[in-house]
Amino acid sequence: MQIAKDTVVAIDYTLKDDQGSVLDTSEGKQPLAYLHGNGNIIPGLEQALEGKQTGDELSVRIEPADAYGERRDELTQAVPRDLFQGVDDLQVGMQFQAGGEGGGQIVTVTAIEGDQVTVDANHPMAGVPLNFDVKVVEVREASAEEKEHGHVH
Fold first, then answer.
1. pTM reported for the whole predicted model
2. 7-68+125-149: which CATH number, 3.20.20.70, 3.40.50.2300, 3.10.50.40, 3.90.1310.10?
């Protein structure tokens, strides 16, 4: 069976940056299972897997526009330290759920200078080309419930 919309796909993968550093892998874990064509994985990888079948292996480079997008400077801002009340040991790299008009989003603390804290709402992999080595482990038809819910059960 070929990978197409509304098929359940299980893949083993290793994700590296351009320097060859491993950013993520399924090695030693269960394969990643997702419902194809439902936005459950980054668009570029989903496009590269279209039409593949069990046993196929591929290496693919995904540009930021087809992954987590380009970095956007307007998503970085300095905010007052007192917004982090109850956090005694605030450190660079910490992540927080921030509320906003469009709902919540995750922000990462990127700098602390006196009473100002710089936070970044960009995805940590925004602006980064991603290099995947993938093996298709399984392809099957999705159940009616999986299709209805838009994800694998």
1. 0.82
2. 3.10.50.40
- Token representation of residue 13: 């993968």
CA distance 128 to 132: 13
- Return per-residue pLDDT of the chain as tens, 153 residues: 999 999 999 999 999 999 999 999 999 999 999 999 999 999 999 999 999 999 999 999 999 999 999 999 999 999 999 999 889 899 999 999 887 666 678 999 999 999 999 999 999 999 999 999 999 999 999 999 999 999 998
- The answer to whether the CB of 22 falls within 8 A of the CB of 16 is yes
